[in-house]
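User: Can you predict the 3D structure for this chain?
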Amino acid sequence: MYKAIFFDLDGTLTESGEGITKSVQYALEKLGVSAPELEPLKVFVGPPLLEQFMKYAGFDKETAQKGIEYYRERYSEKGMYENTVYPGVENTLAELKRRGYRLAVASAKPTFYVTQIMDHFNLSRYFEVIAGTDFNGPKVTKSQVIEEALERMSLSDHRDQVIMVGDREHDILGARRCGIQCVAVSYGYGSREELEKAQPLQIVASADELLNFFV
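Assistant: Here is the predicted structure, written as structure tokens:
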């Protein structure tokens, strides 16, 4: 039986695509890469930025790191607030907490941003732990963040009691590497094909459906 639920942030709790894609667009254009359309840039929502800049634009690691610096210029000022909470999410969190589940956020976004966003939307009160990555390492992967949350909640030896909720393959694979199950939400930024290929425990279509999973 599950006792703790770890949530991804972008694409799971909040619809953050606008702020992320506009900040990526800003960074790419500063590096001389034309990016007039935001839709293709949604691939940046979820995965680690360094990896995605290298994959998307063919940057070497040094250039990708510069891209992250430019991204943060805009994201810190306005991008993080170009964001909304998904319908039903707050009700689901409140009800899960009422039912006695221990809740945590485990995000690949830097902790500095995660805490500000959670506070901005008044969601921090539902969570026992809010864990994210470090700006420049060493904690940069989803599995490292999950491990931190497990340790902080004294659950490292009780992984069968923990489940992850996320919207991209990185959430599912990161959870699997840590020995925990994952439920995927299809309303986020991962395609149905991506999610099915990663083989989560279940795919749900809404926050209400997620709540029904935890009967």
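The mean pLDDT is 96. The longest strand covers residues 102-110.
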